[in-house]
Design goal:
The protein is an alpha/beta fold. The protein is built from eight helices and 15 strands.
Length: about 270
């Protein structure tokens, strides 16, 4: 921050320099705010709304984030609640947000503090935003209808594979299946509905999500392949808010050490 100096001449021939410093307050959101349009906190990071950790997510990716009626639920939803609690905040989810718009939304600032929608850490995304430490390891998968006769990924050459637009599942299918037509959808539920109705031949999606859909709603489908991509999820944070990233990392470490993270794994991922 630039400081201004005002020199005041006190007596004839005598010069006394006097400084007046003007800066941002960091007291509980009473400051002038951040570049993202948020309010400064005592912890040094900015928030869109005082006392709240505002989260943008595509709430159609169970068991990580999903809507139960109008209420967000899932592993990541519970985890963000725990992190917010560690930080003395309340987690506040925005209405479900289209997945491939969340990174630009956080990068631009002004609407959400973080993006939490099972984002895999990639170099491409790191060029736009920052990530916290990772909170989950996953692989990709391929799902088909049980009566499709498809038992191997090679059988999908020249066929249609559905995936959520902007995801690593979409990218994997496009890069690894010969002559494939990857069909993008805004929501994961639409991808599985398209598979069930015969619009596509397979679904490429993170394995825990595929397992959830197959077990809960699409029992006529089956996962035929786990693809060892070794992906890791992390929370998306603006590069303009590094202290928030640090605070989230501290909170994440705490919930892993106090056993609450393991409780969430047992509840949602086992």
């Amino acid at each position: 921050m630039k400081m201004k100096k005002w020199a005041v001449l006190i007596a004839a021939g005598a010069l006394v320099a006097s400084l007046a410093l003007f800066g941002c307050s960091s007291g509980g959101g009473s400051g002038s705010g951040s570049k993202d349009g948020g309010n400064a906190t005592d912890a040094g990071y900015a928030l869109i709304n005082d006392g709240k950790l505002t989260v943008a997510a595509s709430l159609d990716f169970p068991p990580f984030e999903n809507l139960n009626g109008n209420k967000p639920e899932g592993f990541a939803v519970d985890l963000m609640g725990l992190l917010a609690e560690e930080m003395g905040l309340e987690a506040n989810y925005l209405p479900s947000t289209k997945f491939d718009t969340i990174v630009p939304l956080i990068q631009t600032g002004g609407k959400a503090d973080i993006g939490v929608s099972s984002f895999t850490v990639t170099d491409e995304r790191l060029a736009q935003i920052d990530f916290t430490d990772t909170y989950c390891d996953v692989n990709q998968s391929i799902t088909v209808l049980k009566d499709s006769g498809i038992t191997d990924v090679k059988q999908l050459e020249g066929k249609k594979v559905g995936a959520q637009t902007g995801t690593t599942g979409y990218e994997w299918a496009a890069e690894n299946i010969k002559d494939v037509e990857v069909v993008g959808f805004d929501e994961m539920t639409a991808v599985f509905a398209a598979l069930q109705s015969g619009q596509i031949d397979a679904v490429a999606v993170d394995l825990p999500v595929a397992n959830y859909y197959v077990k809960s709603a699409y029992t006529d489908c089956q996962v035929i392949k786990e693809i060892p991509t070794g992906e890791q999820y992390a929370v998306v944070v603006s590069k303009e808010n590094p202290e928030l990233t640090k605070a989230l990392n501290t909170a994440l470490k705490a919930v892993k050490e106090n056993g609450k993270y393991a409780e969430l794994e047992a509840k949602w991922l086992q």
